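Researcher: Re-running this chain for the archive, since the previous output was lost when a drive failed. Same request as before.
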Amino acid sequence: MTKNRRYEAHYDALNDKRIAGAPSRPTTLPAAAYGPHQLEWVPIVGQRPPVWARVSWPDRPAERIPAFAKGWNDRVVVIAWGGPGGAIDTVVWRDAVTHREA
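Model: Regenerated structure tokens:
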């Protein structure tokens, strides 16, 4: 199939606007940072411990957010929280996470 040249500029502009308005994703640690130990997962949503986590962003300063721990080991914690577009999860260093009251 070919591109429709008549509307190409219009749809390119719409796509650029959609991308510019999308919220940025948090910075996450690579799998190499996890270390040799397996992650311990909490599969049931209601049983995940509530935490405070410092999350880094590519376009703004790091912030402390309320989240839930999905899994962890001796080095990293996988956290999740609700964002404007739905659930967001990322991997942070273990020392960036503290317990919080539910």
